[in-house]
Amino acid sequence: xxxxxxxxxxxxxxxxxxxxxxxxxxxxxxxxxxxxxxxxxxxxxxxxxxxxxxxxxxxxxxxxxxxxxxxxxxxxxxxxxxxxxxxxxxxxxxxxxxxxxxxxxxxxxxxxxxxxxxxxxxxxxxxxxxxxxxxxxxxxxxxxxxxxxxxxxxxxxxxxxxxxxxxxxxxxxxxxxxxxxxxxxxx
Length: 187
Known about the structure:
Subcellular location: Cell inner membrane
Shape: elongated
CATH architecture of the largest domain: Sandwich
Main location: membrane
Number of strands: 9
CATH topology of the largest domain: Ctag/Cox11 (Pfam 04442)
Structural class: alpha+beta
Transmembrane segments: 16-37
Pfam family, one: CtaG_Cox11
Order of helices and strands: HHEEEEEEEEE
Largest sheet: 5 strands, mixed
Distance between the termini: 75 Å
Number of helices: 2
Membrane topology: Single-pass type II membrane protein
Number of domains: 2
Radius of gyration: 25 Å
């Protein structure tokens, strides 16, 4: 074997090792995306996997209504896809510690059954920690038949510990079809 062939084999082997390292690094990055995504959502306040507010019941038990203070709550609704999605009212004044119920109407304008999901967000972001939902359609995916309309309550309480400089809170939901999911009939 000539020295040229030996050098060529060495380069091929080196290239193969480099490609293998790249493949392993790409696999590791893909595997790490889920925890990275969750960390980014936590830091930015974007919560795709909405969980029930575990401390909401505790806040309700341990507070009294603070009638000396009012906070304006603005309700916003955005849909992604062929939905009609809106709150029954767009704004209201709320006293911290007061249990409030608002309803959202959702209509599936598609000619097929689907699953929908709502994702909440808050402005200012610092209000999210003190805006406690006791009941919300955003806690799970919602099945819809073709053309079906539903009304969903959101029961919430604003913690009296909310910073005093917060006078307005916007609760904004985005409602979208869950890709690949089909509506499951409840037994």
